[in-house]
Recover the amino acids of this structure.
C-alpha cells in the first residue's frame, strides 16, 4: 500500500469569519460537557477562547482541566478535558516519563476525587475463580508486590498521521509514555483463590466510573477482555513512578496488562473476572476493532490489544544548524524487547545503526536510542526503524483502518526539518 502522507506535521487552524456564532457554539459545548461531567471547561473559559481567536490567527492553548492541574502545561497539548498529549519536544533522554508530562486518555469522566481520600478502602471483586472474593486495597497490599516498567500507549497514538482523518483525537506521538507500576500480580491472587474456574478463556476488567442514569450500562461502561494468558504478567497496581496513582491515571487501583494498548489497562477497577466469553460491552464488542476503511465495526474483527514494534525520533524536531547533532528517540516492542534501531537521515534511502542507551528496564519498557550524525545544509527527513527480539521489523506503511488504530509506520513518524 502506497504511503500518501507528505508530512508528519498536522495543521489544525481555521479562520473564524464570525466570532459571535463561534462563541455561542462554545458556550453550548460547555453546557454539554458539564452535563456529562467534564465541568473543568467552563462556559467562561470556552468563551474566553473564542475572544482570543478574534484577535489572533492561532488559538490560545487550552488550559489544563482541574483534575490534572498538577501537570506541566508547557509539556502538554490539551485536545479536550479527557485527551491530553505529551509534546514531542517534551520527551527527554531518560527512560521514565514523569507523571506531570504523561498523556491522559479517559473514555469516561474521572470519578469524584473522594475515591482517593481513603485509598485502602477501595474494593474489587475477583470472579471466575474457584473461590470468588472481594478484596479491599489494604488487603491486596498484603498479598504480594511486584514492579514492572512498561510502555503505556493509547490505541490511537499516531492517528493524526492518517490522511483519511479518522474520527477521534488526532494524536501524533504523545499518547504514550514509559512508567513504572507497583502492585500485586494477578496470578498470585488467582492462586490464593484456588485457581481459575472451568472453561475460562478471557480476563475481563471492569472500570468503576460513575455511569449516567437511564441508559444501558453495557453501552457506555469501560469493560475490556484480553486472553486469559495475559494474567501471567498482569498486575493490580496502586503505585506509579513511586507514588500513589493519581485520579487522572486510574487511582486508587488499576489493572495493568503489560504489552497491551492503554484501553485494556482498566482504571478504577471494580471487578476482575475470568470468563468464557468476551465482554458484551460496546467498548469491547464494537469499539477498538480493526475495521476496514468505510466499514462498520463488529465483534468478528480483530480487537486492539497487543502492541507491536514501533519507534520514533524525538530530537531534533525543529530546524537545526549544520554540523554534528545527536538524533535520539524511543523504541519498544509490545510483548518483546528491542534488539536494534536503525536511523536514516535521507527519508529511508540509507540506514545507520543507532546505539541503545540508558538502562534496559525489561521487555515491556521502551529503549532510548541515539545516532550521532553530521547534517549538511538543506532539507532532511529523519526516520527510525526498530527491530524487536523476535525479529519483527517496524513496517514502512501504516495498516489502514476506520479507527486510526495501531499506527506503527516509520514513514508516518518521520521528522522533516531544515538544516541551516
Amino acid at each position: 500500500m502506497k504511503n500518501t502522507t507528505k508530512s508528519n506535521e498536522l495543521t489544525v487552524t481555521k479562520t473564524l469569519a464570525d466570532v459571535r456564532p463561534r462563541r455561542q457554539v462554545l458556550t453550548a459545548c460547555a453546557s454539554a460537557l458539564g452535563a456529562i461531567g467534564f465541568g473543568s471547561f467552563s462556559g467562561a473559559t470556552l468563551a474566553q477562547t473564542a475572544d482570543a481567536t478574534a484577535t489572533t490567527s492561532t488559538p490560545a492553548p487550552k488550559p489544563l482541566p482541574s483534575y490534572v492541574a498538577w501537570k506541566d502545561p508547557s509539556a502538554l497539548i490539551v485536545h479536550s478535558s479527557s485527551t491530553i498529549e505529551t509534546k514531542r519536544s517534551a520527551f527527554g533522554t531518560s527512560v521514565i516519563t514523569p507523571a506531570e508530562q504523561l498523556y491522559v486518555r479517559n473514555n469516561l469522566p474521572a470519578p469524584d476525587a473522594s475515591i482517593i481520600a481513603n485509598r485502602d478502602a477501595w474494593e474489587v471483586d475477583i470472579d471466575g475463580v474457584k473461590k470468588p472474593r472481594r478484596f479491599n486495597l489494604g488487603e491486596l497490599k498484603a498479598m504480594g508486590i511486584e514492579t514492572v516498567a512498561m510502555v503505556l500507549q493509547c490505541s490511537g497514538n499516531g492517528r493524526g498521521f492518517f490522511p483519511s482523518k479518522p474520527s477521534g483525537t488526532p494524536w501524533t506521538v504523545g499518547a504514550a509514555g514509559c512508567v513504572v507500576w507497583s502492585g500485586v500480580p494477578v496470578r498470585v491472587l488467582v492462586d490464593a483463590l484456588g485457581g481459575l474456574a472451568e472453561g475460562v478463556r478471557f480476563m475481563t476488567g471492569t472500570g468503576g466510573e460513575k455511569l449516567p442514569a437511564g441508559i444501558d450500562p453495557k453501552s457506555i461502561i469501560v469493560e475490556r477482555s484480553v486472553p486469559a494468558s495475559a494474567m501471567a504478567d498482569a498486575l493490580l497496581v496502586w503505585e506509579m513512578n513511586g507514588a500513589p496513582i493519581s485520579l487522572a491515571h486510574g487511582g486508587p487501583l488499576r489493572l495493568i496488562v503489560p504489552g497491551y494498548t492503554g484501553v485494556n489497562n482498566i482504571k478504577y477497577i471494580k471487578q476482575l473476572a475470568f470468563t468464557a466469553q468476551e465482554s458484551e460491552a460496546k467498548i469491547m464488542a464494537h469499539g477498538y476493532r480493526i475495521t476496514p476503511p468505510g466499514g462498520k465495526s463488529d465483534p468478528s474483527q480483530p480487537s486492539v490489544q497487543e502492541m507491536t514494534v514501533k519507534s520514533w525520533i524525538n530530537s531534533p524536531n525543529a530546524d537545526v544548524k549544520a554540523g554534528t547533532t545527536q538524533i535520539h528517540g524511543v523504541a519498544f516492542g509490545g510483548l518483546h524487547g528491542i534488539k536494534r534501531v536503525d536511523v536514516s537521515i535521507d527519508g529511508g534511502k540509507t540506514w545507520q545503526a543507532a546505539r541503545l542507551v540508558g538502562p534496559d528496564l525489561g521487555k515491556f519498557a521502551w529503549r532510548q536510542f541515539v545516532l550521532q550524525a553530521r547534517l549538511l545544509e538543506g532539507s532532511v527527513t529523519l526516520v527510525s526503524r526498530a527491530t524487536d527480539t523476535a525479529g519483527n521489523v517496524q513496517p514502512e506503511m501504516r495498516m489502514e483502518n476506520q479507527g486510526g488504530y495501531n499506527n506503527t509506520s516509520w514513514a508516518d513518524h518521520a521528522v522533516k526539518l531544515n538544516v541551516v
User: Anything to note?
Assistant: Residues 64 and 147 are 30 Å apart (CA to CA). The two ends are 34 Å apart (CA to CA).
